[in-house]
Specification:
By secondary structure, the chain is of the alpha+beta class. Helices cover 28% and strands 37% of the residues. It has a single domain, classed as Electron Transport, Fmn-binding Protein, Chain A (Pnp Oxidase, Chain A). α4 packs across α5.
Length: 191
Amino acid sequence: MDDPFALFDRWLAEAQASEPNDPNAMTLATADSTGRPSARMVLLKGHGPDGFVFYTNRESRKAHDLRANDQAALLFHWKSLRRQIRIEGPVVFTSDAESAAYFATRGRESQLGAWASDQSQLLDSRATFEHRYAEAEARFAGRDVPCPPHWGGYRLVADVIEFWEDRPGRLHHRQLFGRRDGDWSAWLLYP
């Protein structure tokens, strides 16, 4: 198959049919300005040839890393399917309109939590966070919760995508796609 996005769609659909929890979960790896790496799980919320989208607090550690170094990597691992996909490339902001549209689809508790949380910052006690959550509940009682100014989306624009499938005897199948000047090429890799 020569289209990495069609292959990604097929594999994601198979994961959605078989994975019991969050088949759209992916590891996001970033590095700060000194090159110190950090990885965490985030949820894929949109994808296509223009990139792979996730949302977060834009004051979080991952956001600080991405401001310092816009290169990142994603990893999908579906253990039950014995497959993984690695994706690498630069990360850009989604538009404010796109961020607000997605934010409106989130559950109200998640929306309020985005207002109450200083994600990745030190917290003196759980009670402080719960108090801030209660303040957000009161502030937005009886009305829609708008997207906070410090919250939004990121799009990783893939320039490398690798598909890995487990095979008996560790004779795995690996297919690498790379983009140059907008065109994709495909290669096989030794396992």
